[in-house]
Amino acid sequence: MQLKHIFIIYVFMLPLLVGASVPSTFSGKIIDSKTGIIIEGASVLIEDTSIGTFSDSNGEFILYLGKGEFTVLISATGYVDFELILLIDESVKQEIKLEPDMKKPQSARLRIVHRRTTENYNVLADNPDFYSK
Question: Which of 16, 41, 75, 121 is 20 to 30 A from 100, comparing alpha carbons?
Answer without folding.
Answer: 121
